């Protein structure tokens, strides 16, 4: 990928919301996800996870697979001089793993407290679903990059605010009608590597 005048200076990867599959967690998500994410996160941490051993949580983080082709994609974008930022309402351990393994420049996510090998129920809420846009803009500002020089990749309705703000938005494997409507491009599962071509096309336009 060659450097272009219009090429974005940063790519925001907007992580999906992590939620369990129990009946209680689904009911809580339906009730609070769009109205009070902070309350949803606290109830989930306190009622569903508190007191449980942390080892399975750490194991899930370690075993979670990246989207197909993301390693090569990030390497290619970094060679082109782009800054890579993750904004996720999921686990900060997953975001940190991607930062360390892939060379992501900056991350923002949510922390789950662990004491003496067990989940404490405490939650460090850094990114709510409704607050993704504000966090994303703060990270861009910290890097000295304006939204009109940024691209974003998201998959859910909580990513619409960012998609509307940046210069180039991509919906990836998304089922959100709102995100699909506002995004500049739509990619299906496994098509994430095409992002490099999209950015190059945009930069040369």
What does this 3D model show about the protein?
With 205 residues, this protein is α/β, with parallel strands linked by helices. It has nine helices and seven strands, in the order E-H-H-H-H-E-H-E-E-H-E-H-E-H-E-H. Helix 1 packs antiparallel against helix 2 (37-49). The longest helix is centred in the N-terminal third of the chain and has 13 residues, at 37-49. The radius of gyration is 17 Å and the shape is globular. The two termini are 14 Å apart. Mean pLDDT is 80; it is low at 16-37.
Helix content: 40-55%
How would you sum up the global shape?
globular
Please, what is the average pLDDT? 80
- How many beta-strand segments? 7
Biggest β-sheet, characterized?
7 strands, mixed
Rg, alpha carbons: 17 Å
Key traits:
single chain, 205 residues, alpha/beta, 7-stranded mixed β-sheet, 9 helices, 7 strands, globular
